[in-house]
Amino acid sequence: MPVENCSSSGQRWPENVGILAIEVYFPYTFVNQEKLEEFDGVSKGKYTIGLGQKNMGFCGDREDINSLSLTVLNKLMERNSLNPMDIGRLEVGTETLIDKSKSVKSVLMQLFEESGNSSIEGVDTTNACYGGTQALFNSLAWVESSAWDGRLAIVVTADIAVYAAGSARSTGGAGAIAMLIGPNAPLVMERGMRSVHMEHAYDFYKPNMSSEYPIVDGKLSLQCYFRALDQCYHGYKEKGRTLYSNPHFNLDDVDYAIFHTPFSKIAQKSFARLMFHDFLYSTKGSGSVEERYQALAEYRNLKLEETFQSEVKAKEIERASMKCSQKIFDRKVLPSLYLAREVGNMYTPSLYGCLASLLFR
């Protein structure tokens, strides 16, 4: 949807700002999840069925976050025949640090040395898995701002997800994605349709600078994930109603849904939870329940926050919601999970791996 804005100086917003091109890179080495189940001595299907994973990519001793990022950026520029002088912003989203000061972005500037282009804005953006999305938002905002000089932006999202031996190790992975940002894009990022939730929690953090492994509270991490999902979907629906005067904005208005995927099964659970949102809203003040929501009928008077108070009740609702949403999930979400199942959790590139899967499948 083209949006224009005229300032006092007569400047207009560039039209159709979004993603012009996308490039994916992941390591050639991987672990088969069925073999990992055998090695870990866990029940058959715990990783493959329970988490929805097939394989897990990992880096050897000749790859690190800098090499992953250099490779994906170089591929993006070569495949799209980009002139290095046409790039005015380069921002990296990552939480994989090998230096406490020197940024990955500064390493990537090697690819611009020959052209003589050192006038490139942007830094590393670090905020766990959200860093890549904020880097994208920052780059979109730059193109739409008074600072924009007509050149293009590039966002690189890259991470190596590794865990100490234990239940979380199967949710590792590695990869990098680069996105070219500018006007007149085939994939437009709609202005105004954005919802954000931020809170403080010790669910996932890396306080030990001598270790690459995070400290993870798995139960709390899932609660944080779903709480953020709740708040963002609520805010997104409110904006949908406002911008499009649609009082009943719901999943029917969405062609596809993609999710951050620490493991693939969470995408199905997340989509089911969004349907539960729609169910609660659709039945408010109504004496009947739509046919597609029949499995949820007994929960019509439940408040959303109550799902965090009882683990048993939460599992019941999750199973019922997944049953209601299965057919729609297969059509609107499943096509986006190819890379997530084969490569594993890529942290900041995870969401955009789902986008690439959806676009290229």
Care to describe what's here?
This protein has 361 residues and is of the alpha+beta class. The protein has helices at residues 33-40, 65-79, 104-108, 131-143, 218-244, 265-283, 311-332, 338-343, 350-360; strands spanning 18-25, 30-32, 55-57, 87-93, 124-125, 152-161, 173-182, 187-188, 204-205, 215-216. It has a six-stranded mixed sheet, sandwiched between helices. Strands 2-3 form a two-stranded antiparallel sheet. Strand 4 (87-93), helix 3 and strand 5 form a beta-alpha-beta unit. Helix 6 (265-283) packs across helix 7 (311-332). The chain starts with 17 loop residues before the first strand and ends with a helix. Residues 1-9 have low confidence and may be disordered.
Provide a short characterization of the protein structure.
With 361 residues, the protein is an alpha+beta fold. The chain is 35% helix and 14% strand. Helix 6 packs across helix 7 (311-332).
Describe the global form.
globular
Sketch the topology as an H/E string, one letter per element.
EEHEHEHEHEEEEEHHHHH
Write down the oligomeric state: single chain
Q: How much β-strand is present in the residues?
A: 5-15%
Overall pLDDT confidence: 91
Number of strands: 10
Instruction: Identify the strand order in the major beta sheet.
Output: 5-4-6-7-1-8
Q: Give the low-pLDDT segments.
A: 1-9
User: By helix and strand content, what is the structural category?
Assistant: alpha+beta
Q: How much is the radius of gyration in Å?
A: 21 Å
Helix content: 25-40%
